[in-house]
Fold this protein.
Amino acid sequence: MARVSRKQNTIKPEVKEKASLVQAAVYLRLSVKDNGKDDCDSIENQEMIVRNYLKNKPDIAIAKVFVENGHTGTVFDRPVFNSMMEAVESGIYNCVVVKDLSRFGRNALDATDYITNIFPEMGIRFISVRDNYDSELDTDGKDQMYIMIDNFINELYSKDISRKSCTVLRSKRKQGLYIGGYAPYGYKKSEDDKYVLEIDEEAAAVVRKIFEWRAEGQGYSEIYNRLNKMHIPSPTYYKYLKGIYSNYSKTGKQYPWSKHVLFDMLRNQTYIGDVVQGKQLAGLYQNQKLQPVGKDKWIIVEGKHEPIISKELFEAVQRVNETKQAEYEKNANKYNLPKVENVYTGYVFCGDCGFAMKMVRSLSTKKDKAYYNYKCGNYHMHGKDYCTPKKLRKADLDVAVLETIKLHIALFVDMKEELKRLNNNSAIRVHTKETLRKIKELQLQEDRISRIRTSLYDDYKDGLLTSEEFVEMRDLYSKQLDDIRSELKSLEEDKNYREIEVKTSGVWSKAVMQFKNPQEVTRELVEAIIDRIDVYDNEKIKITFKCMDEFERLGEEIKKRKEEVA
């Protein structure tokens, strides 16, 4: 049976010039900083391939090109990608175009989720040029199966690259080639060979002094206080001053010397001419994140560069380190008092200078009890020139945190119960039923119009439509689809608002189930719901919780329900 043109069933809109309905965001990505090489995956070539392809797509306009330079595709938490998705979610773009799937991402599960679930639900058209994939044309979903296969191949390829890279790096380490991003303080990378270290005499003179002072028996605090009083730049600040760190966060303020810097430096064999590497390892192909490695597995190659200090001085310092460590452990356990876990490590900060608060132990007069206080780590190490002498008893902090958490949990439970009560109101149930009926009706309309619009191209190829009629009718049906999808989105949100369980990040919902009525502050409790704690003078504290948007969402839901039943 011959195909009948659909133009006779369509009321033609007024013909006028207008911008293309499809506003495309072009996404380009390179894993390593683009160095201008004429490579098939260079940013320039990716953009050229996409633009050439879109020349034959008059209905698609390139609204913006997003360039992600130097970020891996194995994760989707990338700054430029996130920026693009925010714009897509806000409705600025309704199409995403990439050169191929490997540029979009090499994490198979996440990439497939975007292409088969997230983009379709948002009404976003997705095009992968080299993979010959256009979601607009994939009406039966068959191409999505091949997309999933390609995504898994890309992930395997990425892991293969990781495996080969790890092998190459390990080979270089065994040869004694220095592959670190920055040279250790006291050295600089050779201009002739980036894998060789050369002495930076200005910093090396400071390194020699530090080792000499330590060999004399001086403690860490005595050494770092001397360095700070002499206004000698710390290693990090020194690199900033020399232009090695271009994005140093403490610009204009010298970051002081500290115990942690000296602790590592005074044990570093690099200063006697050895290359020590492999202290931390990671491997994507093994699904292995960065983690420390035992000293017995470090890769040490002796005599690879000029030493700053003698082996005799280095060994003398190691003896001092061992002696002082033994004395510290002996004094720490002198009174056989039980140790107390610092459950707030990484969460408590000075509200003025931003340094971590240090938990300090003090003993009673009889030495039979231990008391713990939090002090500003900056003031504790460097004195009043760097911060104020604020102090907070751990016991007081525990009480404040526990009571505040209990109040928030109780409030969250009450709000959930109130929302549940309002949802059971008969007027809201009727409204919900009507909303579901409208959603189903619009979904049927969307499916019918989408099929008609898809078949327009066949009518055009068969000569049933002129090019002008094709464009005019395509735009008409696209406008109808946009209106339907916009109304559907509004109704879906309305439906979700009427669900008893509110769609949130779930942090507080999980906390209520897991902890319910906590009796003490534990590390698990802190990690679950606390973002940070800031301590100020006069024992004032500010507790910032995670995901407070859950409370805001609940409040909004309750307000809407009350307005509906009023």
